């Protein structure tokens, strides 16, 4: 299997991928074009590791995030093999499987865990498999969250953004929430984190006493 210096000019010429539509790949109208540019594994104080997926898009200069619980929930654009990239390149941008360890050289295979990603050789697209990829037919908890600095980081009681953010994480991580008996994600789920402080008004405006919160 050739895994270094993958060459596919079709993929490289398309910087962004379309989410949710089958046409309009040039971004004229319709939904924004987005591309996952990096993924980082983050240990947490609450138990499970999470993955931060960083996205660029053609609508604003913000780097929006997907906070992903479960390594097997994968980004198609992140994991797609790109022109002339090496396995080292893939590890640097987070397109690897399993866990990194000293001396590891192959992003697409984790020898220690016995896991390997599979790809369509003609397109470079990641192929879903039971061993490596979350089954899309399973229920997946998703929260769309709008950035709120004061609510999330300054313990503000003027809004409940921080509480909602925390609860979303707890629900995704648990099997079920004891107080409500709501079914949790059992370690699988996504918080789409939109970098739009106060729904786009900015931190200065969002900090004014009279501002209606998100
Ligand atoms: Zn808020």
TrEMBL record:
Domain of life assignment: Eukaryota
Keyword Flavoprotein appears in the UniProt entry: no
Domain GTP cyclohydrolase II: 134-207
Positions of region (Disordered): 1-27
Signal peptide: none
GO MF entries: cyclohydrolase activity
Pfam families for this protein: GTP_cyclohydro2 (PF00925)
Alphabetic keyword roster: Hydrolase, Riboflavin biosynthesis
Any one of the GO BP annotations: riboflavin biosynthetic process
Full protein name: GTP cyclohydrolase II
Species annotation: Saccharomyces pastorianus
Gene name of the record: RIB1_2
């Amino acid at each position: 299997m050739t895994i270094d210096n993958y060459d596919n000019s079709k993929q490289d010429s398309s910087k962004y991928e379309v989410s949710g539509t089958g046409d309009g790949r040039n971004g004229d109208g319709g939904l924004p074009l987005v591309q996952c540019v990096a993924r980082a594994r983050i240990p947490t104080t609450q138990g499970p590791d999470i993955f931060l997926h960083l996205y660029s898009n053609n609508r604003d200069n913000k780097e929006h995030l997907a906070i992903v619980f479960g390594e097997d929930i994968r980004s198609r654009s992140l994991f797609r093999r790109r022109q002339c990239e090496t396995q080292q390149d893939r590890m640097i941008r987070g397109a690897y499987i399993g866990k990194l360890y000293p001396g590891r050289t192959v992003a697409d295979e984790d020898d220690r865990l016995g896991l390997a990603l599979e790809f369509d050789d003609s397109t470079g697209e990641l192929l879903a498999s039971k061993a490596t990829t979350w089954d899309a037919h399973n229920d997946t908890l998703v929260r769309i969250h709008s950035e709120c600095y004061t609510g999330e980081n300054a313990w503000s009681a003027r809004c409940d953004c921080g509480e909602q953010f925390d609860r979303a994480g707890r629900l995704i991580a648990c099997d079920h929430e004891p107080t409500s008996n709501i079914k949790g994600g059992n370690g699988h789920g996504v918080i789409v984190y939109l970098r739009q402080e106060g729904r786009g008004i900015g931190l200065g405006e969002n900090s004014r006493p009279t501002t209606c919160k998100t």
